Prior knowledge:
alpha/beta; Urease, subunit C, domain 1; TIM Barrel; 16 helices; 20 strands
Amino acid sequence: MENPEHFDVIFANGTIIDGSGSPRFKADVGILGDRIAAVGDLSVAKTDKRVDASSKIVAPGFIDAHTHDDRLLFADPAMKAKSSQGVTTVIVGNCGVSLAPFSSPGRPKPPLDLIFGLDPVRFSSFGAFLDAVDHKPAATNAAFLVGHQTLRISEVSDLYQPAKHDEIVTMRAHVAEAMDAGAIGLSTGLFYPPARAASTDEVVALTEIAGAAGGLYATHLRDEGSKLLESVREALEIGLRSNAPVVLSHHKASGVANHGRVKESLPLIREARKTQKVALDVYPYIASSTVLLAERVADSAKVLITWSEPMPEVAGRDLAELAMEYQQTPEKMVDRLQPAGAIYFSMAEEDVQEVISFEDAMIGSDGIPHDEKPHPRLWGTFPRVLGHYVREVGLLSLEEAVRRMTSVPATVFGLRERGLISEGSFADIVIFDPETILDSASFDQPTQPAQGIDAVMNNGTFIWWAGKPTGECPGRALRRV
Ligand code: ZN
Ligand code: CU
């Protein structure tokens, strides 16, 4: 691209970490429209707005590889939980849970209730959902997976059986419609009760539609505990048989008895990567979070309630304490709180570090945005990796961590011209202080914006500035091309 003399915005004197993994360098970055128009010495160029970035890092906006932000795009268009972290693109529709296609009113079964509210936001087709995002954009971009659990809950008459032939035919048609509309692939959450009865063949029957359209297969494995290895093998098989790249979601070994198992799962994944496309994402915490499930309670060291419909006042409380207070067994207390969500302290720190260090591991928050007292990963994931694991622990270089948050997910999810600071790329940019960036969200105070993020730009428009959302909504629905 030819260097123009005038830019809409110039980020001046910053240190560029360009997302490719290359060593940092000093340069100015010039923005014109929604693109990066120049990277170099722009000291004599004219501009409407010169942002002094000295002693700051200028990096591509982060791509949150695993989110449940489907409805948040409408509920909080500023996307504060994400824009405050430097995130400019979210991947939605994970764990088999997508907002579309789904038309029945009211509260759907768990775990769909993680993202569906009581408000009547319903889309009977995937295309209608993406059109709604076009018409009412959010601050961040989003790319979309269609969820197997969403399809199953609307189409399968007996959820405790494998889908019947005609139900598979209907679900395949929905996947085809979603792929046509621009979905980037299919997701599953085979661990969850509504999907457990699905056979490998059922999943292949749907994933091959996604694969044929150039889409991928993202999966919350059938078992992240004692059957972790079998579950990874099943996911790899589904990818191979469907001719679809595989994304292993929030990779972990769950449950005290299974700590250390990632030492076996990661080599298995490394081996598979020689012959098929396999990626994984991870969040930087030893606690997980989802709907309240008795079996998860049993293998966790501690459980915190994130929301409860019959007892909203207990959000944030420890389940064991509640059980004592109400003089009930933990099992009875779980029943009494339903429907509800929880945080489970179920992983080992060593395993978490092992997964974050794995080559090309992407960062995905897995935040659950509508919980009363959410897991802090919703607001803290990206600054926690950069502040805690990079600066304090020294697990990765800053360049490598930024690469896993930008160009790696851009490639895996097919987000063209994003994830790099380079001439011609979309102007998705975060300016942060490498000395102070850190998560502020804690289990007690989970909705605090991070420290050290100065400014965030998406498609050439600022979405976060001086600790606040700007109110601008330049986000786009990123369709598979
Ligand atoms: Zn999941
Ligand atoms: Cu998830």
